[in-house]
Amino acid sequence: MTDHTQPQQPYYPPRPPYEPTRPITTEPGTTVWPSGSGGGFTPPPAEPAYAAAGPVPAGPVSRRRAKRGVGLMAAVAIAAAAIGGGTATLVQQLTSDAPATTASSVVSGTNVSASSTGTVAGVAAAVSPSIVEISASSTSGESTGSGVIITGDGEIVTNNHVISGASEITVRTSDGKTYRADVVGKDPDKDLALIKLQNASGLKAATLGDSSKVRVGDEVVAIGSPEGLTGTVTSGIVSALDRDVTVAKDTEGSDSGQGQGQGQQWDPRQGWPFEFGGQQFNGDTGSSKTTYKALQTDASLNPGNSGGALINMNGEIIGINSAMYSPSSSSGSTAGSVGLGFAIPVNTLKADLDALRSGGGS
Predict the structure, then answer these.
(1) How far is C-alpha 276 from the geometric centre of its chain's CA atoms?
(2) Residue 4 among the catalytic residues
């Protein structure tokens, strides 16, 4: 018996039913794979069939080709979904980071610009236009001190001892303009005075802070006119709170009509005499004196800083500089700061401001 062998059919390698899909590139870093409206993968239109070398019989081979094509389509669809999801997640992360960075740079509620907050340079730039130099002339000579602008039309706070006994007061602002000023009110018990510039407008007023929030160790800046050097800036910290500082009061006998002579005219450039702990500094305070609670600072204060500003790092006035210890009080040229300065708390000024505006002190 002879075996009958069936002729073997020729094998043709399977052709892809369509050209493999290529990704569509839009912007750098973003790849989009095309998909159908129903969410599935839709192949592009089929190209014309390749010319066949012979008839392709139907049967198991054809079924294997069909199954292989379906598997390829599923794999491509899954890969596209994975890439698309990863790209969306990355874009979302990059986008969500941007607003957080912008929001963290916003600073509000301060007189100092956001880029200079907490720096001496920022405080100096913001507050220096509100600090003035005061020259007070009297029959006994001329004294120089400092002052703080508190209203745009020229109200200025200073120490009483800076303008005590003055017959003429001249004020120079940070831009070099000069004004005549009149005394509005004085409070010798607190060593405070209020003067008003003549024909002034559009001035930059300082912001008065809250001295009850001041803590030992807080950084501060002092601005004034020591030795007539207008706009001098120094810095330091708050060294102590509630120091009992005793200073002399002016008598101004010629004004009071009590026959006490010309009274005392202290030159702030010589260092205002004061007492602390039962000792006298910078000269004799005399028999007429007053005591107040003061902020102590190691920011350098020199003769002429009297009436100027002690400022926190937000650019707010927390004190009016009023006294400093000098190792020598014989002359302005030999006096100098040793890091023992005192300022009247700004809350004392705010409580006394209405009385000063009415012509007197509380």
Answers:
(1) 35
(2) no
Residue with the two structure tokens 């006998």: 253
* Overall residue count recorded for the chain in this entry: 362
Whether this prediction's pTM lies above 0.70 is answered by: no
Biggest distance spanned by C-alpha atoms of the chain: 162
**pLDDT digits 0-9 by tens, 159-198:** 998 998 899 999 999 999 999 999 999 999 999 999 999 9
- Extract the tokens encoding 107: 């600073």
The gap from C-alpha 51 to its chain's centroid, in whole angstroms, comes to: 79
Which residue in 143, 174, 225, 306 is the catalytic one? 306
Q: Which of 128, 143, 161, 174 is catalytic?
A: 161
Cα of 335 vs its chain's centroid, Å: 34
Cα 245 to its chain centre, rounded Å, is: 32
pLDDT in tens, 228-278: 888 999 999 999 999 988 887 764 433 322 222 233 445 554 556 777 666
Give the alpha-carbon dihedral of 6, 12, 14, 18, to 10 degrees: -130
Choose, from 146, 187, 191, 352, the residue flagged as catalytic. Answer: 191
